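WARN retry 2 of 3 for item q-0093 after timeout on previous attempt; input resubmitted unchanged.
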Amino acid sequence: MLTITANLALDDAATGTQTGTVGEPSVGVSSSTLFVTGNWYATRSADRGATWTLLDPFTEFPTDRGIFCCDQLVTYLPTQRLWVWLLQYSKSGRSNIFRLAVSRTAAAGTWRWWDVAPADLDPAWTDVWFDFPDLAVSTKNLWLTFNHYDGSDRWVRAGVIRYARADLTRTAPLTRRHWSTTAVGSLRLVSGAGSSMWFAGNDQAHRSVRLFQWPDDAAGVTAWTIPVTAWNDSDYRSIGPDGNPWLSRCDDRITGAWRAGGRLGFLWSAGRGPGRPQPYIRAVTLDEQSLTVVAEPDLWSQNGAWAYPAAAPNKRGSIGLAAFFGGPTQPAHAVGILDQQANTWTTKTTSTSTHAPQAGKWGDYVVCRAHPSRTTSWVASGYTLQGGQDRRNIEPRVVVFRS
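OK item q-0093 returned
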């Protein structure tokens, strides 16, 4: 049974109205502290969401290597009692940096950080810039993914950086390895990794998922091509009740991934196609040992579009979901759980927008994470528009739910 136990809306004081319709909210949670990031704000609550304190990502850190741009991710590592905050910086010249910061409390002024630029990974990577990161942990490592684009904003490669978790509590430079590919982009890391990290990217042209495994103690990456049922990556037309679109920038990058109970799962937004009259969430689960397809439990509707999924296992191995739905209504945020026997989803709406976004732009991601102290619960991020179409009408949201 799906039960929402907390549904917290962040007001203007929490975000400083530094919000955008391409909201990209992320959330981490400890026993009592919440830390939320998005375009273009960060905010902290030390009392489970009763009050919030804004941390401005433009001013929290020095600007010696550029200024803050956009994408952010945050997570909490309960075994190390450590917050991790990732920020993407704007291009300075022909490149940019990711800034990886850690703190014991997530309070302003307590963060230590390390920077990485493309050329720090490979001296030849001087004319490319980072974009669209993902962040996850395994037993021994912290993992970060990236896309590279050139000076003409053309995609060049995707990659993964592996950091030793033990180094995050020290002041010395981080120990890292990296790996890259030109086969697929926008690599998505699984939530729930053990001693190996699994990650994947889509290859729509070949009707397949490109799957990768990188064990914690291994130097190299192993790859497989997994054939799946074909999907459409172009027709994301979804019109709200006022005649305005909301998925004008949607695509088929994998945005949800998990490992639990001997299975791997991957989710992405797919366009309209045969048997799917609205954009929908494409889902594939694999047997972790044989890597055969176990099921393809798509989340779809005759009446409206589903998009921008995130997923994670809770501590019992049940799969939780965060996503958006729209068409019959303005864009709505929802959470859900997967019945792994019936391969069906149960969902509940947490908030529905009052308006459509300007220019039809929404996305690009939300997060769903296992709650660190509640065995059957998850915490998810989301947002809606309340009271208008302007970016300042965005209302971010933190939802705790359980199975």
